[in-house]
Amino acid sequence: MSLAGKVAVVTGGARGLGRAIAVRLARDGAAVSVWDLNGQGAEETARMIRDAGGRAIACGGNSAKADDIAAAAARTRAELGKIAILVNNAALSPFCKFADITEQVWDDLMQVNLKGPFLCCQAAVPDMLELGWGRIVNISSSSAQTGSAAQTHYAASKAGVIGFTKSLAQELARSGITVNTVPPGFVDTEGLQEAPVDIAAFAPSTPMKRPGRPENIAAAVAFLASPDADYITGHTLSVNGGRYSN
Fold it and tell me: Which residues are marked as active site?
């Protein structure tokens, strides 16, 4: 699944799923632009790729701010080339009881989780249309498929990502651009370790009795970004160890 000659953008690439995805796409031959509000973490990911012989740059900025996205996209084009692959991974995933969710908390989360992918797609799609080839992979969540107590705002935002993906896929289907979504479930990342979840206690309740690895998500993204997936669009590829199947 060679991605040689392709330029990929991975948002939220400073750690966790984003880092694993960026590293995997680079391993498959893509030049990678790592975007993250945590500029130091993004640079660490880019350095890992360069140390392994790949091409990568880091762009600090907020993936929900149009000006930051425009600047990162312009730098990516100048240093690597036109964007052919976009992975919208940046997200907030807090736990908060419904009664405690303020309007500001709701709005801030929607800005990052739903507006962010919209703005990033608007920035990248013109490049893909010029190239006549493109891959967009939006990271959603199994919480949007099953629901998640104390995460109504998060689950709602990720359900929006799934609907956004399906609709954009239909609109771009004849252009050579595919749009798909990967909803992870119970993956052992820094985010899960920081969440109010007892990983060891929850694992036995899942079909595989263990959490997934970031590399499992990265492999799914790499497939959807590859030439081999050129007849797959609007698809939800669940990677959750059997937690949810449909």
Answer: 154
